[in-house]
Specification:
- Helices cover 33% and strands 22% of the residues.
- It is an alpha+beta fold.
- The protein has a four-stranded mixed β-sheet with strand order 3-6-4-5. A two-stranded antiparallel sheet has the order 1-2.
- Helix 1 crosses helix 3 (30-38), helix 2 (18-25) packs antiparallel against helix 3 and helix 4 runs parallel beside helix 5.
Length: 184
């Protein structure tokens, strides 16, 4: 059955453009076979390091500070970092200003990664929580993401929230990282 589907998909790919084949296939399960069969970059076989993927069939998410997919290598150590916020060593907010809290939260994330031997490029996924979100907050956020990851940001979900754990807390970022067995 799988061989028959693969043969049909390969025939479609040969005779149609990818876009037309996807339109023809609609939302059927065969679409998944087409995507896996035609996007070599999504393959995670023999992957020795974290791989960030932005398939050509999805818009370029890196311009918005994240990647669509993170593929983790086998044999890597997994690290989950709790939400970091704009706090000093005593747990006090460094400011009531959103941008100052944001900058400190990213510093704290770097400290947390470093404490377990991880680096920014080891981060596969983040979740960002922003109080009273509006698009103007994307400007400083985008700058910090760019400073932290350059043009290879991890997968991310941004969630607007009415409040966070502490009064006055405006920003929080948690992270999922994978540390390779051996670094090059």
């Amino acid at each position: 059955m799988t061989r028959r589907i693969t043969s049909a998909v390969n025939s479609l790919v040969t005779n149609f453009s990818r876009r037309n084949a996807l339109l023809w296939l609609g939302g059927s399960g065969v679409t998944t076979a087409l995507m896996v069969g035609t996007q070599k970059e999504v393959s995670a076989k023999d992957n020795k390091e974290l791989k960030l993927v932005n398939p050509p069939t999805l818009y370029d998410a890196t311009q918005n500070g994240y990647s669509h997919i993170a593929v983790t290598p086998s044999g890597a150590r997994t690290v989950y970092i709790s939400g970091q916020f704009g706090s000093d060593l005593q747990g006090n907010l460094v400011s009531d200003d959103f941008e100052k809290q944001l900058i400190q939260a990213f510093k704290n994330l770097r400290y947390a990664l470093s404490s377990v031997g991880a680096q920014p490029q080891d981060v596969a996924k983040t979740t960002i929580l922003i109080v009273d979100y509006n698009q103007t907050k994307l400007i400083p956020l985008g700058r910090e993401i760019s400073n932290f990851w350059g043009y290879k940001p991890p997968a991310n979900t941004l969630i607007p929230v009415p409040r966070l754990a502490l009064d006055g807390m405006l920003f929080e970022i948690d992270a999922y990282a994978v540390i390779p067995e051996k670094r090059d």
